[in-house]
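Explain my protein.
***
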Amino acid sequence: MKNVYHSDIMQLLLLRGKEGMHVAQLSRMVYNLHTNLFDRHLNYNDLHQTIRVYLWRQSQMRRSPFMHVHYGYYAVKPDVAIQLNFCFDSPIEEEIVAAMPKKAIEPKDDPRQLTLF
């Protein structure tokens, strides 16, 4: 069973560490990530129920990354490997160069450098 909010749940629980987070607090944070003042298509009660059932079912599975800490609290298992997502669509070098100060980008003239032209 794959949840639409799996990556958000994983990120938020990873930040909390081994003590975990209560389902209500987790649901509020996911709800705030996906809704705004003008877009009200997401219902909090449905989202809370979905996350609660999803985490409960996942914590019952042996190979799941989630574990049940105590009543209403869930955490990520400490032995879970995190998969990194790399985006190869946008060139990273241009972003790094754009973020660097202009003084560091400009080449400096070195009298010891050979001139070819």
Q: What stands out?
A: The chain has a mean pLDDT of 78.
